[in-house]
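Students often ask why we bother encoding 3D structure as a string. The short answer is that it lets us treat folding as translation between two languages. Here is a chain of 217 residues written in the first language.
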Amino acid sequence: MKQFVLAMFACLLGISSSYGNAASVDMSKQENIELFNQHYRAGNAYLKGNITLGNYDGRPAQGEAKVASLRNAIREFNKCLEMVPDHWQSILFKSLAHQALGEHAVSLDLMEQVIRLQPKNSVIYKEASLEAIHNHDIEKALRYSRRATELKDGDPELLGNHAMNLLIAGQDNEALNTIKRALQIAPDDRVNMNVKKLIEGVISGQRARPTVETVFK
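And here it is in the second language, the structure alphabet:
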């Protein structure tokens, strides 16, 4: 079977763009493959410049043009999913579009669909952890960030993300040990240096503990 076009963000996730097993149309036909690719390319084109993977700052998209592009991306990925309901890349990119629009409950639900389809992709767990924070669910955020570190052991970015979630959850000693491990791996990581200072400040009583409500403010 001819492989689908690779999404422009796929290289960042370490993923391929082949579709799953449960297709609602006959994907052995060349015209259906071409139609799917058309919608898939269009969805990615609408996303270009409108999302930042792994660096969402919590502010919903501003401006009519940007919002319209994100809505158009969602529409195109919906067309892909009408053809191949379990095409997890389309579900993920649709989730990122909803994330950029500030629609975090929808985004998290979609990311959890992706986790069920791709249970060993650490990047998706990290993104799901971020969305759980936006949904004020620290238990779920902690579970997802922990799983990400298990799947990609020794990744300083994932360890830093998990350390922050541990701090929010009040697990200060584990948070400090986790961030120290991250800095042993990447001593010059400025983000993790700041996380360590924050954790130490909370433990000493000099800094307020971040919460799911304040972490993005």
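Translate back mentally: DSSP finds ten helices and no strands in the chain. Keep this in mind for the problem set.
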